Amino acid sequence: MTETQNPSFTMIVSTFQRRDMVCETVQTIGRIRYDGPFELVVIVDGSDDGTAEALEKLTLPFPYRVMWQPNGGLGHARNSGAALVRLGGQRPALALECHFDGCECLCVPP
Questions:
Q1: Residue 95 located in a structural domain
Q2: For 67-88, what is each residue's pLDDT tens digit?
Q3: Which segments of 9-82 are extended strands (E)?
Q4: Which residues pair with 7 in a beta bridge?
Q5: Cβ-count burial 19-42 (b if 16+ within 10 Å, e if not)
Q6: How many domains does the chain have?
Q7: Which of 12, 20, 21, 69 has the highest local Cβ count within 10 Å?
Q8: What is the span of the domain harbouring residue 32?
């Protein structure tokens, strides 16, 4: 995806204090094969365990953004992620979320 292209969808991942788990999840998302442009937005909701720094070191085959914010809870993290979606200024047609609020989630491509 080039800077001028808008993604056809955005994945929003929100996390709190799950550095290793979210990094593993983001790496599995990086193995997804999709012919169209998409992006990943990761919201680090107040984590002080080095999550944001670890995420920023990852290399993915598509654009992704990491945003750290003071802890505001899951709803606030989701809303912050949605506010960063770049679909030509329109609301997302599809938003996929993986969040880490007492559970682990891996996106495993077929």
A1: yes
A2: 999 999 988 888 888 888 765 5
A3: 9-15, 38-45, 64-69
A4: none
A5: bebbbebbeebbebeeeeebbbbb
A6: 1
A7: 12
A8: 9-100
